[in-house]
Amino acid sequence: MCQMLGLTAGRFGTRFLGRRVMALVTPSSATMASHGHGHADVSEIADMSKPMYCDRMDTPLPDRAYKDELNAADKTLKEKEKGPWNQLTKEEKIALYRLMFRKTYPEMKQKTDEWKTVMGGIFIFLGLTGLLVWWQSIYVYPAQPRTFDSEWQAKQIQRMLDMRVNPVEGLASKWDYEKGQWK
Amino acid sequence: MSLPKPVMRGLLGRRLRFHLPIAFALSIVAAAAFKYTVTEPRKQAYADFYKQYDAVKEFNAMREAGIFESVRPSGE
């Protein structure tokens, strides 16, 4: 569950996504996709068939601990953890926490400037779309129907007034028939 | 580290006891507002329109404007 939902949220996800995007963009994508050593941006490939770690506010206990390759000092600390915990010093407790987790909750909750990137991207694409729509309105659209001409529209409204369209609360009720003008 | 035990039961009932009267009150207010800003003025507008309505006069005005196909304006 952690790996499915955390793919786009966690940092592992963006690195993985970067590799996929690179594979699509480069011309020899078939050869490059088969081995990962040619890329400078990806140092390790996450094995997504195994439990993954994630920093998510709604998942307090991820599928695996953060550090699974423990050096000798970490291993002795883990052995000490098996005993009574009030014998652990404050620094040891913090070290154990950092073995298990990458970020604390306050660190996870830190606000980023990502919204600026998002809004900037939205406006850029809106702008590009606007240019596209403008070009399209000049070079793609067929001729306007004659019903859009202002003379036709004036004659249309005159006919609607002659027919007394919506005389109680609508169009014809706003026209003064004696004076021949809008009320 | 000894916090009081939180309330475990009756949470939905408490929420309903708080929100239902508000929901009913707001709904009634919305309905009353719509009645007195929309339906009553509209009924009055229709009553006023038909008080002074002369159907034959309106028909002749429309006929002179030339919109009917069954009766042409009196000049033709």
TrEMBL record, chain B:
Pfam families: COX6C
Matching InterPro entries: Cytochrome_c_oxidase_VIc, Cytochrome_c_oxidase_VIc/VIIs, Cytochrome_c_oxidase_VIc_sf
SUPFAM superfamilies given in the database record: Mitochondrial cytochrome c oxidase subunit VIc
A cellular component annotation (GO) from this entry: respiratory chain complex IV
Pathway note: Energy metabolism; oxidative phosphorylation
Major subcellular site: mitochondrion
Membrane topology: Single-pass membrane protein
Compartment list: Mitochondrion inner membrane
Keywords, sorted A to Z: Membrane, Mitochondrion, Mitochondrion inner membrane, Transmembrane, Transmembrane helix
GO biological process: mitochondrial electron transport, cytochrome c to oxygen
Subunit structure: Component of the cytochrome c oxidase (complex IV, CIV), a multisubunit enzyme composed of 14 subunits. The complex is composed of a catalytic core of 3 subunits MT-CO1, MT-CO2 and MT-CO3, encoded in the mitochondrial DNA, and 11 supernumerary subunits COX4I, COX5A, COX5B, COX6A, COX6B, COX6C, COX7A, COX7B, COX7C, COX8 and NDUFA4, which are encoded in the nuclear genome.
Family: Belongs to the cytochrome c oxidase subunit 6c family.
Main function: Component of the cytochrome c oxidase, the last enzyme in the mitochondrial electron transport chain which drives oxidative phosphorylation. The respiratory chain contains 3 multisubunit complexes succinate dehydrogenase (complex II, CII), ubiquinol-cytochrome c oxidoreductase (cytochrome b-c1 complex, complex III, CIII) and cytochrome c oxidase (complex IV, CIV), that cooperate to transfer electrons derived from NADH and succinate to molecular oxygen, creating an electrochemical gradient over the inner membrane that drives transmembrane transport and the ATP synthase.
Name of the molecule in the record: Cytochrome c oxidase subunit 6C
